[in-house]
Amino acid sequence: MSGGVVWITGLPGVGKTTLAAAVCARLRARGAPTVLLDGDAVRAMLGEAGRRFDADSRRGLALVYARIAAWLAGEGVVVVAAVVALFDAAREANRSTGRRYLEVWIRAPEAMRRARAADRSAAGPRVGVELAPEWPRDAHLVLDNDDNPATIEELAGRVLAAWEALGHAGA
What we know:
The protein is α/β, with parallel strands linked by helices.
């Protein structure tokens, strides 16, 4: 099996990690070597460098996510990335690797998103509030989450169907 990247992006609180975990579980059930690359987990591992939230630091971290994902994909792993990373440069970096790539933009109602994101507020400027996001222009898939567990399972199925439609069956 060859690797690739399923890049799930959106504002904080839209359900990126929940969706990514569901996609990972389904890929693993098919025998695909899979890793969940969660933006919050990477920030925690980076220590002080992961605690900067200004626009330049966020942009740089988005490129770090893309580089990690490309490296792991090159090792034959399917990387399911759950990252805010709403910057064109990160998405362009993903597309330029020549690796298998599926871009998923997940959205949610504002009230739900704000309630979920409030529990995990980051210090500094927030994307979608003080920092304007660069919305995906060419996402392969745009999904809307209503925070219902059944919806997440349906959305995970749509992600896998899109992955397979791109010629990535089985991995």
